[in-house]
Amino acid sequence: MEKPGTPSSEQSDKAKKYDRQLRLWGDHGQSALECAHICLINASASGTETLKSLVLPGIGAITIIDDVKVTPRDVGNNFFVDSDSIGRPRGEVALHLLLELNPDVRGTFVDQPLDEILDNQPDFFTPYTVVIVTCLPESTLLALSKVLWDASVPLLIVRSYGMIGYIRVQIEEHTVVESHPDSEMPDLRLDRPFSALQKYMDSLDLDTMDNKEHSHVPYVVILYKSLQEWNSQNGEPPKNYKEKKAFIEMVKKGMRERKNVEPEENFEEAIKAVNTSLVPTSIPSGIQSILNVAASITPSPTTKPFWIMARALHEFVTSEGRGVLPVRGTIPDMTADSEKYIKIQNL
């Protein structure tokens, strides 16, 4: 007899199944997806393709509202109906095939005209996370949009015309605290080091180190030392290509030449990191605009967590932050001895 799966084994199986998307939006994003209940109005080709892209990653539940029957035209353009289903309820047929894609997803079908639901069941859409609409006449769409706006339920309108199409979204203010940027510059603060970091890096003397220690100094220290020397000669950090090229030559001069020994890897890392590490410390305009709004907010029990965080961030920037954001708290991997790397990481 097969033993029932434990929660940990189930979690492990789910992690394997959804591995790629978990890397994209993490546990919180997957949890939000699995708790969502999506309503699709009209199981057209565009509608079923949209649902497919939600069923595969594991949406919690779907409901299809569609009161039409499958026609030969549907068979020609909709992957989720077939010739045997002609004359049957289109939403029911599409739902059955969609649920076959992922047994984790629950689904229901409503064979009722949308106008009838709007007239007789105004609270019908309240439980849904998002309502997706395809192929609706404008008058019905406007009536639906008003009902959803009053219920604070997002509306997604999908329409396709051959090889082109559009998506329209109706939603109230949507705030995100946990973002996943495509790329992140390392936040090393070399142009504006905070006092503890500056004190530590000033305490290190590259000239008095032996060869082994010299080749294991974290490259952030190398860049800091080189930047101090550059600033003493030029007054400000390198900005353009020509200046950064000259700065790289300055970094190279700090490498120790030893016969039959590979170049110091930490200095090579420093040279490669010049363009990403010497970025001026500033607040991006998009974040600054949020902080400007947050400055006028007085937090209350009804304030969204996003704006409470933004208000706190504004207060930090204007006080101990000295006009800049908090240090991100992570540093890149570096060729370095453990003691110095961990020290900088802790700082």
TrEMBL record:
A GO biological-process term: protein neddylation
UniProt keyword terms in alphabetical order: Ubl conjugation pathway
Membrane-spanning ranges: none
Pathway(s) served: Protein modification; protein neddylation
THIF-type NAD/FAD binding fold domain: residues covered: 18-175
Pfam family name, one: ThiF
Molecular-function annotations in GO: NEDD8 activating enzyme activity
Gene Ontology cellular-component annotations: cytoplasm
Keyword Membrane: no
Family note: Belongs to the ubiquitin-activating E1 family. ULA1 subfamily.
Name of the molecule in the record: NEDD8-activating enzyme E1 regulatory subunit
Gene: NAE1_1
